[in-house]
Amino acid sequence: MKRVIVVLSVFAMAGAVSGCNKKGNTPPAAVAAKAAQVQKAPGQMNDGELALAFLGCVQNNDKKLMYEVSNLTAERVEESREKLTNTAKYKQTSQERTATEHALRMSGSIDFYLKKMTKILPASAQLEIIKSEQEKKSESAVNIHSIKISYSNKDEAPADKSGKSVKDMVVKLKQIKHVVNGVTLREFIFDSKDFEKMADKDYEVVSYY
């Protein structure tokens, strides 16, 4: 069975404390490497764990696992593309077309985040969910996860628009469930306005170095 590795913040923090109790200074990268890891299949994860796993896949540049966490497959993406580019052949209702668009949009978002989020999500960063809220809409239930990103390695920490190195900041990741042909797809996406602010280095900073 394919597995997804999620680094739980509580274990990461425990590893950091353990490192600090030893004589001398343990390099942040070494502390992160010693953090305990829990392996679960996506179907066994709760919503919060899935959100952390999705961002963890960005950290590791692992598109394959991002697909697994999202319950997306190459076949579903190709089917979506085929139906949307051959509208004369596949005469879909507006509702069917909307459902068909989900897989293609999710695939595009995954490619985009893998390209644009690497500086914000280096492999050494630790992730922790600090709050989850549910926003109900007409067709889908939307979870909004507030996730704290902690940078143990100052050299890999991003600088905000003032030029100061960020130690901890918070991002909000939306999780939307779509049922398409009886299959539940899990879409993870940043609000466009929030992403624009991140692109401008206007982060929700908790602490600086």
Secondary structure topology:
Layout: E1 4-6, H1 9-21, H2 28-33, E2 38-40, H3 47-59, H4 63-70, H5 74-85, H6 94-116, E3 126-136, E4 141-150, E5 166-180, E6 183-189, H7 192-199, E7 204-208
Antiparallel strand pairs: 1-2, 3-4, 4-5, 5-6, 5-7
Helix pairs in contact: 3-4, 4-6, 5-6
Protein model, in words:
40% of the residues lie in helices and 26% in strands. The chain has 209 residues and is of the alpha+beta class. Strands 3, 4, 5, 6 and 7 form a five-stranded antiparallel β-sheet that branches. Strand 5 and strand 6 form a beta hairpin. The relative contact order is 0.14. The N terminus is likely disordered.
Q: Considering DSSP H and I runs of 4 or more, what fraction of the residues is helical?
A: 25-40%
Count up the helices: 7
Distance between the termini: 41 Å
Rounded mean pLDDT score: 82
Q: Main β-sheet: number of strands, strand sense, barrel status?
A: 5 strands, antiparallel
Low-confidence stretches: 1-38
Helix-strand sequence: EHHEHHHHEEEEHE
Secondary-structure content class: alpha+beta
What is the overall silhouette? elongated
Round the Cα radius of gyration to an integer and report it: 19 Å
Provide a concise account of the structure shown.
With 209 residues, this protein is of the alpha+beta class. The protein is built from seven helices and seven strands, in the order βααβααααββββαβ.
